[in-house]
Amino acid sequence: MSILVIGEALIDIVSAAGSPDRYAPGGAPANVALGLGRLGSTVDLLTDVGDDFHGGFLLAHLRESGVSVHARPTGSTSTARAVLSPDGSAEYDFSLRWAPDASLVDDGEWSAIHAGSIAAFLSPGAAAVDALLERGQASSALLCFDPNIRPTIIGAHESALTRFEVLASRVDVVKLSDVDADWLYPESNRESQIERILDLGASLVALTRGSEDAIIATASARVRAPVRTVDVADTIGAGDSFMSSLVHDLQDSRSQFDAMSESELNQLGENASRRAAVTVSRAGADLPWASEEGA
After folding, report:
1. Does the pLDDT value for residue 265 go beyond 90?
2. Which of 52, 57, 86, 152 has its CA 20 to 30 A from that of 197?
3. Is the CB of residue 28 less than 8 Å from the CB of residue 7?
4. Taking the complete model, does pTM exceed 0.90, yes or no?
5. At 271, is the secondary structure helix, strand, or coil?
6. 2 class by beta-carbon count within 10 Å (0-12 exposed, 13-18 middle, 19+ buried)
7. Does pLDDT of 293 surpass 80?
8. CA 275-277-281 angle, 5° bins
């Protein structure tokens, strides 16, 4: 069976001081789908794109990486302007639409479902996320969620936190960054943030911390995954690469989390960190292929 990814596909307009704007395919869920396809997973992406040049570019780009895209192209494709700092980090400004047609995947059966980012919070498409996660629960698919918090888009903290916790309580795997965790739970330390998400019902939590070790935790084990040292082109797609690695490696593991050893969690973290390192070593969300050395 395939993996279903639900979420936005858009064009990143990358701006850096002294350089012309660079246009690149992006959107966190689309990047996750792209990464899964490149790692050899069979993957479907339910998304919303325009029938313009940018939409056609996105569809071709995803399909070249083995992603089966389900969308009814119309109107203008969403964009995200990423402004790069000298250290390669990025801040975003979005122009978005999120209204996917879930009937396009009515006949699907999936080993795993991943949802996240803006698509998990933004109406009307958030209703499709809920319905498909409910289908996944009924069919015992592995359910994964990355909030990829964008405060300027997802609304007030209280309502966004409630939405995050509702989704985190329904899935098996939650991956988030330290920036996400601090926005959601600003008064808590790392251990408390992880425990809170595990207490909501998630079976595995992965918390990435930029240039510091990532933390991967279940109710019975906790490990730190060292970040690989590379020359950083930019950080675009790093978290998405980490997420796609987790989904790829865990897609058949829904009933096994409580029994996972520290060694198994270490291997998950090593794989995800290695793949994310490939991504940050080159410009844009250029996630690794399975055939690449080190991927």
Report:
1. yes
2. 152
3. yes
4. yes
5. helix
6. middle
7. no
8. 125
Evaluate the omega torsion of the peptide bond into residue 100 and state whether it is cis, within 30 degrees of 0: no
Positions of E strands within 73-120: 79-84, 90-95, 110-116
Q: Are 14 and 21 in contact (CB under 8 A)?
A: yes
In the chain the domains, ranked by start, together with CATH numbers, are 2-99+109-280 (3.40.1190.20)
- Residue 179 three-state SS: helix
**Alpha-carbon gap, residue 198 to 221, rounded angstroms:** 12
Over range 206-232, report the average pLDDT: 91
Write the DSSP assignment of 108-140 as a string of letters.
--EEEEEEEGGGGTSTTTHHHHHHHHHHHHHTT
- Whether 46 and 13 have beta carbons less than 8 Å apart is answered as no
Beta bridge partners of residue 93, listed in sequence order: 81
Alpha helices in the chain, H assignment, sequence order: 28-39, 53-64, 126-138, 151-154, 157-168, 178-184, 190-200, 238-250, 262-280
Q: First CA to last CA across the chain, in angstroms?
A: 23
Cα radius of gyration (the chain): 17
Residues 1-38: tens digit of each pLDDT: 899 999 999 998 888 887 888 888 999 999 999 999 99
CA distances from 162 to 30, 50, 195, 270, 287 (A): 25, 31, 17, 32, 32
Indicate the range of 86-100, 131-145, 151-165, 220-234 predicted with least confidence. Answer: 86-100
C-alpha triplet 152, 28, 114: angle, nearest 5°? 115
Beta 90-95 vs 204-209: how paired, if at all? unpaired
Return left, alpha or beta for 237; rule: phi > 0 is left, psi -120 to 50 is alpha, else beta.
left
